[in-house]
Specification:
Alpha/beta hydrolase; hydrolase activity; AB_hydrolase_1; Rossmann fold; AB_hydrolase
Length: 289
Amino acid sequence: MNSMQTNPPSASSRSFINAANQSITVNGVRFAYRDSGPATGVPLVLFNHWGAVLDNFDPVIIDHLAQTRRVIITDYRGIGGSGGTAPLTVGEMADDAIRLIQALGLVTVDVLGFSLGGFVAQDIALKAPDRVRRLILTGTGPAGGSGIDKVGPVSWPLILKGLLTLRDPKFYLFFTSTLNGRRAASQYLQRLKARKNNRDKGPTPRAFLRQLKAITAWGQQAPQDLGRLRAPTLIVNGDTDIMVPSVNSFELAKRIPNAELVIYEDAGHGGIFQHHTDFVAKAQAFLDA
């Protein structure tokens, strides 16, 4: 195992848009990550959506969370700056994540998963319960959840619409078509462009499709015993999620012991980005409880 600069960055570089691109080699595979915030307390490790690279998570959320805790975000195997081949199952992504957490020398972590990252986060918490202190699941659902295996058919027309209208497909996939939704979408996509230098490279079409196969398989696999989850869990979504239907958030809240559920009105898959100020306040209160 070798790594480049695994210490948390200094206070002067705490803004996520300036965070250094770092990497650590685990089992012969290089994993790209960024690390921000102070070195104190329990680190928060963040797992992102389908096709996402380091530049695809809302920097404003990371910056606010990193005011009081160390926040680490990583690229999945085969995506962005990470080496290897994108796994075909969520289980393999979770195994990678557990090894990465160990390689970074982190004993106990909090985990935030968005969308695909929420699938991975659940699997991490089930496989390595002693490592996960608190769990935040956003825009996500359980294995075998309603409509999760239909992500491809739902997404392709809107990905095409994005190409035809010269818009990022997340404009249509993550937000409602109301005035509020469209305004939030534009603001979010602007925030994603804030980093100007040393941006991560986008996913290859092959990796994008392999991840879709993993998502589809998650939607078709047998339900997991979420009653075994002992980590306090916060579940957050919009009320109009078309990618991982919102009903899945209610299902998670029903099956995970003592879970807290937050549903934002007139918000979609990217509800946490639309309501980032409120989400950060709720997430900080939950992590500090």
